[in-house]
């Protein structure tokens, strides 16, 4: 279902509502359970999630249109996704393009289709709001995320640009 007004839920799949994050969600970000975060790339994801509310509220980055959405199932946050406008090498914002900063599902809901449902709802919403493409990075040691990206979005371009080392860059045209 499409977003009718800012602040309303805009995606509903697997009995999950994807909605903009609110201040009350900040405590969930602090306690978000990814499972084993001993791998450096997963501890980085955990740190990003813990810092999402301050990241969203940073007044110096208003021009990036930062957005955080939560996947809410019956009042329980099962996942989170954050994105912002994509800026080029010169720092100039590229109209119609978004950078997907993080997508994460709580440990007890992983490997059950929630990440796919969340991203499909988000991408549908972005497409409806005039976004042309979405870009994201995946650490090569994060095998689960690489497999997910390749399996779920096989039409995404995958590159390994020197400026993104050690990450792989995915770009999906919506």
Could you outline the blueprint of secondary structure elements for this entry?
Layout lengths: L10 E3 L2 E5 L5 H5 L9 H11 L1 H6 L9 E7 L2 E12 L5 E13 L8 H15 L4 E6 L4 H10 L4 E3 L8 E6 L1
Parallel strand pairs: 5-6
Antiparallel strand pairs: 1-2, 2-3, 3-4, 4-5, 6-8, 7-8
Summarize the structure.
This protein has 174 residues and is of the alpha+beta class. Helices cover 27% and strands 32% of the residues.
Describe this structure in words.
The structure is a single chain. The chain is of the alpha+beta class and 174 residues long. It has a domain at 11-131: 3-Layer(aba) Sandwich (Aminopeptidase), CATH 3.40.630. Helices cover 27% and strands 32% of the residues. The protein has helices at 26-30, 40-50, 52-57, 114-128, 143-152; strands spanning 11-13, 16-20, 67-73, 76-87, 93-105, 133-138, 157-159, 168-173. It has an eight-stranded mixed β-sheet with strand order 1-2-3-4-5-6-8-7, with helices on both faces. It starts with 10 loop residues before the first strand and ends with a strand.
């Amino acid at each position: 279902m499409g977003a009718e007004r800012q602040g309303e839920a805009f995606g509903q799949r697997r009995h999950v509502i994807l909605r903009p994050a609110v201040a009350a969600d900040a405590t969930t970000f602090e306690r978000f359970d990814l499972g084993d975060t001993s791998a450096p790339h997963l501890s980085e994801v955990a740190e990003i999630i813990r810092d999402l509310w301050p990241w969203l509220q940073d007044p110096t980055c208003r021009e990036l249109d930062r957005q955080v959405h939560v996947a809410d199932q019956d009042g329980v946050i099962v996942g989170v996704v954050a994105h912002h406008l994509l800026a080029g090498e010169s720092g100039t914002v590229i109209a119609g393009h978004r950078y997907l900063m993080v997508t994460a599902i709580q440990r007890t809901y992983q490997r059950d289709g929630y990440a796919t449902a969340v991203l499909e709802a988000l991408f549908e919403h972005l497409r409806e709001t005039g976004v042309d493409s979405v870009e994201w990075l995946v650490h090569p040691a994060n095998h689960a995320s690489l497999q997910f990206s390749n399996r779920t979005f096989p039409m995404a371009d995958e590159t390994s640009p020197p400026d993104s080392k050690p990450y792989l860059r995915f770009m999906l045209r919506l």
